[in-house]
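# nightly structure sweep
# worker-07 picked up a monomer target from the shared queue
# config: single-sequence mode, recycle default, output format = structure tokens
# input follows
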Amino acid sequence: MTATTPPDPTSLPLEQKVLLLSGQDFWSTPAVADAGLPSVVLTDGPHGVRRQQGEFDQIGLLESVPATCFPPAVAVGSSWDPEVAERIGAAVGVEARAIGVPVVLGPGVNIKRSPLGGRNFEYYSEDPLLAGVLGAAHVRGQQGEGVGASVKHFAANNQETQRMQVSADVDERTLREIYLPAFERVVTESRPATVMCAYNKVNGVYASQHHWLLTEVLREEWGFRGAVVSDWGAVDDRVAALEAGLDLQMPGDHGAGNALVVDAVRAGRLDEAVVDRSVRRVAALAGLVAEPTAGFDADAHHALARELAAGCAVLLKNDGSTLPLAAGARVTVVGEFARTPRFQGGGSSHVNATRVDDALTALRDAVDVTFAPGFTLDGSGDATALREEAVAAARGAEVTVVFAGLAEADESEGFDRTTLDLPAAQVDLIRAVAAVSLRTVVVLSTGSVVSLEGWHDDVDAVLAGFLLGQAGGSALADLLTGAVDPSGRLAETIPLRLQDTPAYLAFPGEQGHVRYGEGVMVGYRHFTTAEQPVRYPFGHGLSYTTFQTTDLQVRTRGADGATVTVTVTNTGERAGRHVVQVYVATDAGPVRRPARELRAFTKVSLAAGESTSVAFELDRRAFAYWDVREHDWVVAPGEYTVQVGASAADVVDQRTVTLAGDEVVPELTMQSSVAEWFAHPVAGPQLLEGFLATMPEGAAEMHAGMLQMIGSMPMRRFTADFGAAVPAAELERLMAAARAAR
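# output follows
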């Protein structure tokens, strides 16, 4: 008997085809037996599989199958290690296949525009290169296990306030340089199965129906071939979204959107070819459906989560080598987070962890511990009595370790934070304990940066754990005791004040709009350019060993590239890992550039006394800016300083090179300014010669002053007022010459 090939889904009747373009319920697409297409389940990630138990008729946030909660993106960002991201992606893929999930929604690569962003714990960084490299690695790992990824949330989704309505009003240069590059890297390097569009509008148009984003940029420029899926409930106009390039509406809306699409096709308002295009893309997801595997090794994945988490925490301060804790030391542990860990964020990415380690139990295996809770997570209880109990326990202790942070109720999907401060009861506790303990260490568990002001100078060491996943408690114990050397680096700046942050006056906007007035000066780009002091800069992080960077060499490669080599030496007495950070600084070009921008990085492992040479290839994008007039990336001719930094604020070595760059011949129109005409490399000299020939003696001396007064006047208006000076035919000839030169 000969097997039959299922028909092309686009050959099905219109009503059946359209069924494929929206979910049949909250988490899956409908099966289409006539086309041999099974149902495809899409569930939340990115740092663990959140597959709802039972029927898919609701969001089911608290009812999901047990899975490993790996370190969320806020922690992975601080690892600066694509291997960490890739191994998490691969492990998530293994578990998804075991649980029967062909598409896991993640990673999130949105930029941390403000430290108050409620969903910052799901995102990697304030820098697009770091976010893009890590996101691409996660997708590579996950899809390597046969499970589709969904890079999200495309695009300019940087807040939770009014997230389903707000318009992110942002200029194209800022989009191209800050908010799109991470998506671009993931799409072009790792080819995710899907891209998820955001809830918000971009410049007044919903992302779900934004043709420029979903078709012109994503598909035509970047070559995306997968399916665009909506964030859950993000579709405003189903027909407009389909035309713009959104393929799959999630969740299902009981057929209402499908009926609108059918009606539009029948009425001739929508070409059926548009439907067929999306049907092919969604149908391709069926190729990811497979029989569930025999399961996964929960113990092995927990051990992996512990290993990876230890590479994500950032040692911010370590005065007097307070850390690591000495073997056999008498240690007082204070803070409810030590025994009730905060290890993930709230909302759709909340994973039902297979098990959870706490730091208190793990520390007791290594040192002599006395414990006092110090505070409650919900603010209940007698704060004064709890604090006094903790102070009594800390008095005379060799070291007191205070576990502080934010509860899940303080930061979650759905709302933004309103303050950078820790709860007042915790600040009071830290200060009171530091006043009586010989040495004090603060361990922070937060989904984003918090203010260290008011207590930072009272303590000896600060370890920022962020959110480390279900094995974070054991990982923190490994770091505190020195079983693992801390190697994390800040992926976002810790400011001195919220008021110092670049989006402070514009975040989260008003009356349905949020204006990205800071432009490209996001995060460290703002702080370094404005010379604004911070508590700890982007890229900062300490180790229990020391590293030295030497022999920086930069060699140009063609007109717009360079090769960078540097030697790194572990000058300490123990093995460790170091992040080499390469920045580029320049004033070249007609636009304001940040003081420096991260353009390459890598993490190296070195034994005590060991050296290694590291090489980087900087392509043209490392030196380019987005030119809004040319609608393209441009490398301006001029000097570029390649810097190696211990952070964005600490340059340890640099070399300056000259690049020939791009010879840009601007287009000239009658709307171009007089100054632009005279400065044009082709038309300018001819225009000046002809202009001076018609002017009286002494006009040359007047020329510079005249340009200052009327230089911004469009040529069209100039010729209307001074037509005799520049014949129209001559302007037409010069415009043609400028076009030919381009």
